[in-house]
């Protein structure tokens, strides 16, 4: 499989070069040259596979022999052996029309573990095979950082630097990152928002000479391996319901801020998974909702919410969707992104908006509605939703039709966001792994939110290895 840039200004690369490149050297995002099309027979054969077996089949389509199958199988098996549930991503029935896909059974209790356990092992594999240096640089709105650190901490040949917005993640998210004291980990707490952190990361990666000099690799969802790993659980959730005899149309409701998780669902649907609606759930930072409803992509005023991992105004994966919306016309995407940089917004014509609305429906959940959803479902079903999952469930209640069943993606364990849960008047018990964090010392460096301040810390950290 070859990978190309959404902006079309680099030569195609193979899978390993794609995951090492992260952000394409022309500033675009990497996508597969073609999306594999799956037959109904293939889907039927896959229905009985375990999670790891299914992941192996899907990864094989996109890696196309570049990693020997036995090596790939070991990477997959090792990655998902760390999960607490034997199903890896179990589906829980809430009522006749709603199921929850629990994506929080990995080491850090967040859906990011599913991709980052694999990507961490993959980076380690490449480092050993190529005798190469892997310097990971990433930004997080909360969960990516902890998952990425957990995926590579202590691994030879790899160092990781993670930026998070200072005092704008939950306490548990902060502790999961900053209580790690491994020599190959640096946490930078950045004055500003996640959008500031993400912009700095993308601009440092866009400086190709800096990127190559310091062997920078991406862990954020700009890395195509992240997206591919996330497509697996859409298939697996669908198959879990199919094995139970579910024949109704199946929707997926996805809480999203960076557009990566729902883009993985879009990719699964294009591969042939018979998904009904893709419900895009946002919070009050609702740039993506407005795009789906009006065809206007324009950052608004940042709002701090009870679902902080979605407090994002500029979605880093949005460009991948624009590529397919533009008929895979890289020059059109380049024009749109240049216009966005110059004018701060993208406006699409009516015919393109019709396509967007065929691909997605969207709903922005306000803070009070988020908390009310947590309380209502806890009272009615005794199931505790984290605030991000609550946004997905609230969107389901608004947008799912009669006779349909919806799988809402549960992106994190509620213990990671106890500040929000307490506002509903619910007392929860922390898992032991999370409870233990509160007694550990923290290790982080607080820095200004400028390219220069971050670059200085990055250079100091990575050069210290030499």
From TrEMBL:
Positions of the Threonine synthase N-terminal domain: 2-80
Known EC number: 4.2.3.1
UniProt superkingdom: Bacteria
Keyword Lyase: yes
Enzyme class: lyase
Keyword Lyase: yes
Cofactor(s) needed for function: pyridoxal 5'-phosphate
Family: Belongs to the threonine synthase family.
Protein name, per record: Threonine synthase
Organism: Cohnella yongneupensis
């Amino acid at each position: 499989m070859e990978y190309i840039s959404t902006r079309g200004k680099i030569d195609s690369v193979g899978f390993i070069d794609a995951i090492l490149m992260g952000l394409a050297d022309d500033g675009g995002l990497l996508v597969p040259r073609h999306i594999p099309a799956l037959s109904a027979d293939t889907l039927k054969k896959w229905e009985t596979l375990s999670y790891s077996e299914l992941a192996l089949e899907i990864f094989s389509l996109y890696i196309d022999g570049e990693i020997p199958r036995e090596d790939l199988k070991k990477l997959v098996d090792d990655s998902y052996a760390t999960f607490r549930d034997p199903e890896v991503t179990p589906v829980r029935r809430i009522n006749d029309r709603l199921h929850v896909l629990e994506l929080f059974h990995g080491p850090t209790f967040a859906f990011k573990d599913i991709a980052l356990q694999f990507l961490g092992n993959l980076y380690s594999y490449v480092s050993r095979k190529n005798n190469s240096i892997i310097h990971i640089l990433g930004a997080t709105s909360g969960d990516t950082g902890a998952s990425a650190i957990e995926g590579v901490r202590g691994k030879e040949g790899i160092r990781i630097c993670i930026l998070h917005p200072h005092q704008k993640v939950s306490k548990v998210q902060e502790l999961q990152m900053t209580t790690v004291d491994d020599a190959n980990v640096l946490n930078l707490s950045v004055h500003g928002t996640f959008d500031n952190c993400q912009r700095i990361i993308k601009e440092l990666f866009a400086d190709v000479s800096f990127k190559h000099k310091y062997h920078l690799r991406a862990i954020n969802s700009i890395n195509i391996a992240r997206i591919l790993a996330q497509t697996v659980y859409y298939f697996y959730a669908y198959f879990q319901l199919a094995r139970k005899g579910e024949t109704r149309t199946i929707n997926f409701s996805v809480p999203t801020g960076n557009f990566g998780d729902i883009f993985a669902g879009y990719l699964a649907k294009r591969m042939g998974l018979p998904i009904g609606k893709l419900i895009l759930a946002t919070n009050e930072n609702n740039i993506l909702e407005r795009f789906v409803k009006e065809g206007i992509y324009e950052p608004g005023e940042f709002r701090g919410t009870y679902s902080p991992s979605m407090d994002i105004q500029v979605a880093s994966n949005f460009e991948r969707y624009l590529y397919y919306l533009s008929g895979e016309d890289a020059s059109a995407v380049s024009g749109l992104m240049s216009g966005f940089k110059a004018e701060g917004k993208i406006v699409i014509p009516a015919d393109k908006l019709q396509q967007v609305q065929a691909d997605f429906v969207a709903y922005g959940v306000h803070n009070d509605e988020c908390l009310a959803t947590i309380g209502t479902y806890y009272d009615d079903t005794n199931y505790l939703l984290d605030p991000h999952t609550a946004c997905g469930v609230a969107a389901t209640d608004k947008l799912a039709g009669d006779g349909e069943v919806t799988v809402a993606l549960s992106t994190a364990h509620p213990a990671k966001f106890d500040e929000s849960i307490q506002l509903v008047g619910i007392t929860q018990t922390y898992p032991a792994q999370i409870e233990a964090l509160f007694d550990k010392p923290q290790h982080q460096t607080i820095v200004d939110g400028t390219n220069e301040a971050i670059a200085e810390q990055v250079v100091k950290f990575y050069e210290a290895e030499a």
